[in-house]
Amino acid sequence: MFAATLKEWYYFKIYPFQETLSIYAASIHERKRAEELLKENEEKLRLLIQNSFDIITIVSQKGIILYESDSIESVLGYKPGERVEKNIFKDTLVHPEDKHLKESMFKNALEAPNTDVRAEFRLLHKDGNYINMEAVCINLLNDFRINGIVANYRDITERKLLEKQKDQFIGIASHELKTPVTSIKGYAQILQQLFIESGDQQSVELIKKMDGQIDRLTNLIKELLDVTQISEGQLKLKKDIFNINELISEVVGEMQK
Q1: Which tens digits make up the pLDDT trace of 32-78?
Q2: What average pLDDT does this structure show over 196-201?
Q3: Which of 29, 118, 147, 245 is the most exposed place for a label (fewest CB within 10 A)?
Q4: What rounded mean pLDDT belongs to the chain?
Q5: Using CA of residue 195, residue 197, residue 198, residue 204, what is the dihedral sign?
């Protein structure tokens, strides 16, 4: 019972005693206040999860979906609860080419409790299209309050598209730069030969320095292409002998100019 005068909650119990009544009263204000705060926090958490842009999923050790947040509808088009109790491997939404990534993430999570495990793969939207997702999961099977593996899925389709456009731009720009730089190097070599034949040693030295800078620009263009190849997983390791003394001499010479 709430005592309006005192603005506190009290527990009352009435006992019959002979021809009168015995009333027992105890303050339960702290307990009621704790219950109200708990209810408020639960509602806040529910609203946060419901309006989150990420999908939160809890799966069992065998891969059975125990819980899935309402945000799955806005991200992947499935109704809340539609995929609960389904197996993430037998009834999977993962793209066939990415199944090994999801399986590896789950396996790593099982082997390393309380550790974040990350992966990227494509998930099937209800409309039939695949969405690029970034997943982070943590094994909380040992926590009796969760007793599952918690996974957080975020749509990164737009980010992937921007990365692809960036790589395409770098690739095109690098190829477009290679042709004029190659021509400049050819002209520089012709000039160097003409100066050698005319005995103009000072001009020969200047052309040599220009030729060195052209080589540096060529290497920079090559590195831009390598960045694109790295992102596409096409870069091959090539071992070569490198003279560190020549590099030091070149840098010192540049700094002394």
Answers
A1: 777 777 676 566 555 555 556 788 899 999 999 999 988 888 899 99
A2: 86
A3: 245
A4: 80
A5: positive
Q: pLDDT for 211-225, tens place per residue?
A: 888 888 888 777 777
Residue with tokens 């299209």: 129
Q: What is the number of H-type helices and E-type strands within the chain?
A: 6, 8
Q: What are the structure tokens assigned to 234, written together? A: 């096409």
d(Cα 38, Cα 32) in Å, to the nearest integer?
Answer: 10
CA distance 231 to 227: 6
Is the overall model pTM greater than 0.70, yes or no? no
Look up residue 95 and give its amino acid. H
Q: Is the four-CA dihedral 88, 89, 93, 98 of positive or negative sign?
A: positive
Helix (H) or strand (E) holding 224, with range, is helix 201-231
Classify 15 as helix, strand or coil: strand
Q: How far apart are CA 213 and CA 85, in angstroms?
A: 64
- Contacts with 184 (C-beta within 8 Å, 6 or more apart), sequence order: 214
Asked if 99 contacts 92 with a C-beta cutoff of 8 angstroms, the reply is yes
